[in-house]
Amino acid sequence: MALLEITGLSTDIRLSKSVVHALDDVTFSVNAGQTVGLVGESGCGKTMTAMSIERLLPPGGHIVGGSILFDGLDLVKAPESTMREIRGGDIGMIFQDPMTSLNPVQTVGDQVAEPLLLHRGMSRAESREPVLEMLRMVGIPNPERRMKSYPHQLSGGQRQRVMIAMALICRPKLLIADEPTTALDVTVQKQILELIDGLRRDFGMAVILVTHDLGVIAGRADRVVVMYAGKVAEAAGTRALFREPRHRYTEALFESLPERAAGADARLYSIPGLPPDLVDPPPACRFAPRCRFAVDQCRTEVPRFDRIKHDDGIQQYACFVPRTEPLPSPDELMARHAAAVQPADTDARTWVAPTRFIPEDGVPLLQVKGLVKDFPVTAGAVLRRKVGAVSAVADVSFVIPRGHTVGLVGESGCGKTTLGRLVVGLETPSSGEILFRGRRLDRQRGRDRQEARRNVQFMFQDSYASLDPRMRVRSILREPLEIQHVGTARDRDRRVDELLADVGLPARAGERYPHEFSGGQRQRIGLARALALEPGLIVADEPVSALDVSIQAQVLNLMKELQVERSLTYLFISHDLSVVRYLSDVIAVMYLGKLVEIGPAAEVYASPQHHYTRGLIDTIPIADPVVEKAKAELGVRGEIPSAIDPPSGCRFRTRCPMAQEICAQVEPLLRVGGGSSQEPTPAPGAVPHMVACHFPLLPGTAAAMPASVIGEVRTTGSARAGGASGA
Question: What's the chain's Rg over C-alpha atoms?
Answer without folding.
Answer: 26
